[in-house]
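Work Package 3 (structural annotation) set out to generate three-dimensional models for the target panel prioritized at the project kickoff. During this period the team completed the workflow that converts sequence records into discrete structure tokens, so that structures can be stored uniformly alongside our sequence database. As a representative example, we reproduce one entry of 176 residues exactly as it appears in the project archive.
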Amino acid sequence: MSRIAKNPIKISKDINCSFNDGIFLAKGKLGEAQIVVNSNFNVSINQDEVSVIPIKDIKNDPNWGTTRALVANTINGVTSGFTKTLELNGTGYRASVSGSKLKLELGYSHDIDFDIPKDVKIECPKQNLIKLTSINKEKLGAAAAKIRSFRKPEPFKGKGIKYSDEYIFRKEGKKK
């Protein structure tokens, strides 16, 4: 067991945190975010650190570490935010943002219009790059996974949408 739950979360002076009725709220320079904390735990807020404390005497509850990680992700989201970068590999594959939609040309007979979630910002610095940013790590990952699911990378030529830090295991083709 890692004992990560016992570690306090350091916060800076420009973050305002509050905990009322099982809801943890954090306000920072990028905005504000809130999560519902498990009813078995209480969040104590000091001047420069936040701790997750079990209400009952539970030493081996796996939700303790999960709750601490969710609180830490909420604090990190409002201070620095989260980003994911997707790459499009393939001839004629391109992406562009128009209004509240992401237009994807992925070699199908039609273009794919993806509605951008309200908490996620998407920009395309190049035609084959999609950069997603958000203060909510869960919604960011869900949006990136949905975009990637439109054309997953295939192992023979590596065509498709992949994460920028993802490695595609390449296979050898047919032999004569």
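The two ends are 53 Å apart (CA to CA).
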